[in-house]
Amino acid sequence: MWQSTTSNMYAWELPTSLEVGGCEYKIRTDYRVILDILAAMNDPEIFEPDMTEDEKRQEQIMTMLQILYIGFDNIPPRNWQEAAEKACDFIDCGIKRDDRPKPRTMDWEQDAPIIAPEISKIAGRDIRIGETHWWEFFGYYMGIGEGVFNTIVSIREKRRKGKKLEKWEKEFYQSNKKLVDLKVRKAERSEEEKEALRELLGIKK
């Protein structure tokens, strides 16, 4: 059973490697790498339909390890669980989180055109150019204040809870339904699409 543990990472540094089994292993730290991992972890369509839930979970974890660790092949199988725990801590930015599932109020892919400019404004540069450490990127994301993105998330949350929208929120929603409404994930991909996605994410059949 894979379980995340409390991180011991030093909060004032941007980690570029993780210690597993007493050895340091370099990791890919750019935020786009982590977003690829999150996409894989939340996309059941990339796995074989006859897999059990446990098998899918194990495949998700192996995918995360293969993407994140530059030298994953050098990590002994006996240390894979520790490697997964350290990877989860890194992705969570060293913050202990409540494991209870939460309703989806944003989508990194769908909301990218809105989030990227707001994060770039906070960063003082276009974060789409060059690499940005995941922790740095997430810090910028957490610093997003009043603006279009927060308005969209607020309206999504109110609609989810059945709360009444303010007049200006109703007008905003009517004018921006495509931005506000979270897209339903595609129910089924073609085998060609699945295979291309597996190859992109490094998933071995």
Task: Describe what this molecule looks like in 3D.
It is a single chain. The chain has 205 residues and is mainly alpha-helical. It is built from 9 helices and 2 strands; from the N terminus they run ββααααααααα. A two-stranded antiparallel sheet has the order 1-2. 17% of the residues are buried.
Helix and strand topology:
Layout: E1 17-20, E2 23-26, H1 31-41, H2 53-68, H3 80-91, H4 112-123, H5 134-142, H6 148-161, H7 167-175, H8 177-180, H9 191-201
Helix pairs in contact: 1-2, 1-5, 2-3
Termini separation comes to 22 Å
What would the principal axes of the Cα set say about the shape?
Answer: globular
Structural class: mainly alpha
Q: Mean pLDDT, rounded to whole units?
A: 83
Number of structural units classed as domains: 2
Number of helices: 9
Poorly predicted sequence stretches spanning 5 or more consecutive residues? 1-7, 200-205
Helix/strand order: EEHHHHHHHHH
Radius of gyration: 19 Å
Strand content: under 5%
The total strand number stands at 2
Q: Please state how the strands of the largest beta sheet are arranged side by side.
A: 1-2
| Major β-sheet profile | 2 strands, antiparallel
Proportion of residues in helical segments: 40-55%
